[in-house]
Amino acid sequence: MLLYRPLVWIALVGLTARQSDLSEARRLQSEGDYPRAIVLLESYLREKPGDSEGGTLLAWLYVQTGKPERAAETYRSLLSRHPDEADLHNSLGALLFKKRDLAEAERELETAVSLDPSLVMAHYNLGLLRFEQGEFSGATRSFERALSLDPNKAHYHFSLARAYRASYELGKAAASFRAGLALSPPPDVARPARLELALTLKHDGRLNDSETELRNLLAADAADGEALFQLGRLYLAMNRYPEADGMFRRLTEVSPAYAPAHFMLGFVSYREDALENALASFRRLLELEPDHGEGRYYLGMSLLKLGDRRGAREALEETLRIDPEHVSANYNLALLLAREGEREESQKRLERFRELGERRERLAALEERVRWDPGNAKFHFDLGQEYSRQKRTKEALQAFQRALEIDPDLAAAEVEIANLLATREP
Amino acid sequence: MIAASLGILLAAGNGSARFVDVTENAGVAFRHHHGGGGDKHLVETMSGGGGFWDYDGDGDLDVYLLNGAPLPGYYGPRPLTNALYRNEGGRFTDVTEKAGLSGSGYSMGCAAADYDNDGDVDLFVSSFGPGHLYRNAGDGTFTELTQAAGVGGVGFAASAAFADIEGDGDLDLYVTTYIEYRLDNPVYCGDRTLGRRTYCHPNNYAGAPDLLYRNEGDGTFSDISVEAGVSLKEGKGLGVIFTDIDEDGDPDIYVANDAVMNYLFQNLGGGRFEETALALGVGFDEDGRAEGSMGVDASDYDGDGKLDLFVTNLESEGNTLYRNLSDGTYADTTYAAGLALPSLPWVGFGTGFFDFDNDADPDLFVANGHVMDHASTLSDATRYAQPKQIYENEDGRYSDISRSAGEPFARDQVGRGTAFGDWDDDGDPDLLVMNNNDVPNLLRNETENENHWTLLQLVGRASNRDGVGALVRIDAGGRAQFDELRCGYSYLSMNDLRLHFGLGTAGRIDRLQVHWPSGLTQVFSNLPADRLIHLREGAEPEPFELYRAP
Hints:
The complex is a heterodimer of chains A (426) and B (550).
Chain A: H1 19-30, H2 34-47, H3 52-64, H4 68-81, H5 86-98, H6 102-115, H7 120-132, H8 136-149, H9 154-166, H10 170-181, H11 187-203, H12 207-220, H13 225-237, H14 241-254, H15 259-271, H16 275-288, H17 293-305, H18 309-322, H19 327-339, H20 343-372, H21 377-389, H22 393-406, H23 411-423
Chain B: H1 2-6, E1 19-21, H2 42-46, E2 50-53, E3 62-65, E4 83-88, E5 91-94, H3 96-99, E6 106-113, E7 122-130, E8 132-136, E9 142-144, H4 146-149, E10 154-163, E11 172-177, E12 190-191, E13 196-197, E14 211-215, E15 221-223, H5 225-228, E16 237-243, E17 252-257, E18 263-269, E19 272-275, H6 277-280, E20 296-299, E21 308-311, E22 320-324, E23 330-332, E24 348-354, E25 363-368, H7 375-378, E26 389-394, E27 397-400, E28 415-421, E29 430-435, E30 441-445, E31 452-459, E32 471-476, E33 479-484, E34 493-494, E35 499-504, E36 508-515, E37 521-528, E38 531-536, E39 542-544
């Protein structure tokens, strides 16, 4: 959430004869009659073009009515008369950020904080912008500065937590989420933050603490579907299958049309070798999402284990229709065909598996290396290159960024990021 | 499933096991040192081998334990030597010096067999560095003949196994080689800013081809790895077994590789092998993923007369059981067999099938221990030292009964090699677990029941003298069991060369069939249970009472 101050603007000019127009515009704005408020303010500003209060309100109205360009023009016009007004730079910066003009937004926000280092909103907005740019260290610094000026804003803590998390400083991220939650934000803010805290703890390997937070969410709302889903996944990670089963089962009751719940329930059943239950879940999933490739694959595997080779073959072939590069489906179909005596077709599938499997194995090996040694810049860099080769741009960017976070002198990562950003589709 | 299909009532295990750690009381005062000095060389965390063998031919199992060697920066006790303990009626005496087996270099694994067919058991020790072959002089002493024999290949070796690959009556040697690794050029893994160095994932290193040495029958071996077709450079071999996968009468080779596909080298005859793991379904897990495989064994776990394979793996992968489908292919049946979920949290190393409760089916043991000594900082779901696990076979489905198996199973250690053998000669198999940078566990099996058993000591004539590779089928009490004599399984370990079978309530063996590597098949009837039976190739069986340790 970008921060503006359009409605609490401190007037920079004294009361005039047209002050009534400004008051009327405010009244219209409060009633939601934005078009008439705009007409009135445009007229007002033609006579008083340097009026910051009126100009800022007009810019805000332009934004609300889908005219960001005119809003920016208005801010620029005001800034030509009040170039040292930090608030205006902050507002323009926030607007440009929203328009994705990140470079100019950054300039405006930096000007704002240099003019008024105590302007907490500008620090916060600058943090958001740097986070968006993937400059997590810079974002962290800006959020920390904002918090030093106003430590009682829960969402500042949450934003700082996200910046830490993006920098893989998961312990600090968890602490920041907790600091924000300690300020007792409203439930609609606290709930997602607690969920993020739980996931952060999980990623930090603190599975027991993560469980506690998810349990807290469910204590507040036993039908919290997201918490049920994440707790089920956490129990899977903890190899607590019966409890995972319980969570996903409950989720299918709470949200019967939520396909992922059926998939996960089926997956748990499959691993518990409760294959009939697994079949039921995968079939329900495929009613909801017929082209769920992974669901189709596990349906095939369940049938295979139950001895239904024909059904398994159909499901595996269907998986490959949905996702021709499904490595595991290629593998199992190849083995199945070999058992059916279709050696030529099996051989083709095995060749395809080899080709796809090598790619998967290469990536898995690099991911495993990072998992074992998360502080090694080169490993993140290598992983980024593999993601890049596999056209997984977002993950590649994250990996290169992480490499740079660890080793700021890793110029090769800078180059890779620049190349990816230059070629990335909007 | 034979028992079920025949509707025969068998004496089942009661689902409980009891093992007691007697290491210290039995006189085994050994401690493994990995020799690390802070550089976190991967060899440190992978080591810990040894096992059982009857080095002095007195009929009971002695213990040999392998040690590391000082690595750069090491400041612990010196010298680091291997240790040989002689079994003297259940008490062990250190006879290392007298035997000349203190070893040299960084020892990893070992395999013991009578490679020269002279009636005593010789020893091969694999190393991080050159391997070592010790010839048994027959008087309790050994002579190192590595160079003369030509088995001193250098590398980061791991497990070793003997079998007669060409059926020429002498034992050939397979040595797995892990990765290309140099002490003088270690990769830095970990966080330099925190000064926290860690062991590197094996993916940081290139694989290294394994070694296959053909026994020339004159005391020398030839490295035939390349022409035999087993020299695959991508392999990261850790565990190995010889087993006749395709039942064509010659031993095939299954290699547990770390983080890359496992290999199955099918023996084509004439010293040639073909790698067929992918097509047969034993290279990957059920989803076609390579696993971090360490230990390996084979057994007919479901009683269908076919040998199945079991491999221990990295955490989150689960160990893998490959069921022989009787059509030449295998299926990953780990989940169905109940072996996946209990193994997911742990990193498995030493392993083997063994019928600890003599109820006539192969149970399982796994020694666990993470590779990363900082594992607990990565997740509170894992840790470096981990518990051992024992699984009871219940008609082809396994139950983890570790919690009730005694104190050794409640204690976390960094388990590596595991050897299987009846060292106290009481008719049930015991365990020797080698722990990394720690003391070993000599475990006495004190599981109580009235089940019967047999222990078969094979002596080849036309075949290799140890009878390695012989296929044995036993019918007792209406149940058929099937196994083969393997020299080398588990991880870095050597095991009892006597074949053990639990017989359940059957007080006699109705039928015993031995198919020798020479091709000779012998069938015997109505043999007594609860005896050690000497089976000499071409001769009548000789049952003996076992001396029971007090």
